[in-house]
Design brief:
The chain has helices at about 1-15, 20-35, 55-60, 80-90, 90-95, 105-135, 145-165, 240-260, 270-300, 310-315, and strands spanning about 40, 50, 170-175, 180-185, 320, 330-335. About 5% of the residues are buried. Helix 6 runs antiparallel to helix 7. Strand 5 (about 320) and strand 6 (about 330-335) form a beta hairpin. The protein has a two-stranded antiparallel sheet with strand order 1-2. It is built from 10 helices and 6 strands. By secondary structure, the protein is mainly alpha-helical.
Length: about 325
Amino acid sequence: MIVVRVIIAFSYCRMVYKSQKDHRKQKELEEARKAGLAPAEVDEDGKEINPHIPRYLSSAPWYLNAKTPSLKHQRKRNSDQNDKTKSSRYDYDGKRDRWDGYDAALYEQLKFERFEARDEARKKYLKQQQLKKLEEKSYSKNEDRDDEDALKADDDEAKVGESKQMGFAKVEKRVRTTGGGSTGTVRNLRIREDTAKYLLNLDVNSAYYDPKTRSMRGDPLPDMDPNEKFYAGDNQSRVSGQALKFKQLNMHAWEAFEKGDDVHMQAAPSQAELLYKNYKINEVKLKSKAKETILEKYGDAATEEVLPKELLLGQSEIEVEYDRAGRIIKSQVNS
């Protein structure tokens, strides 16, 4: 992981970003190509590139170090000769058949073998546990009946364990979306002991509750002490935690792109994240440098140094007289 980060950082440092003027010229050229006023861009094979293709699809990833415009990074590379013969032998539907090469008999055999091996291992383990418990209880005389009860309990526990593994103990519920259809199964939407969102504040003018999606974006109790309430609305999760960090990362990528940096959050997320980390580090350095400059110039009032009495009171007992040129004429201490 460290080696990958070093390689990414090295490749990132080697990148040369365009100036704001060059970036503006590039945007104007792209608009002219889309309008048909300028010839289309040509790749290394002499083929024209459609100017209406989105930038995040036409531009190659930064780690490929592409020097000329091309769409080869979007094409599937046939590394084996068999793939070429297969593409000449199959038609359009044959090449896209997801069940090509599937052997149902082999799959059934492997599936049965796997389940049988799992059952044998479980029976062997349970048998060993039962033998251990019988050996421990064989030292007492009147434990024949207890041994039978223990065996029955072990069998019951084994059955319960198997039922849990099969998923019978899983509580599921089908949830319908606002646009129709189903989202699948979810586990325990709400604990029954917890108060429902719409019961936190019965005022009709309070936060709106959507019964279909079971969402309440606003805070139902805005005047309540934040340390005492456990629910502050669904929007609270959007402005806190990792959601806020991801939002800041997106905003930084947009602002950097507008200022001329060739960065895109969806096309190259690793590059955008590395740029944002370097920006935060430089920001901390600049703030600390500015703080040191201010402290060096004006001093720190929070230190424990004792200031002179004349600075605290704004006066002293020294009498000084000056002439018109600012020279000291007379200086004496008043008694």
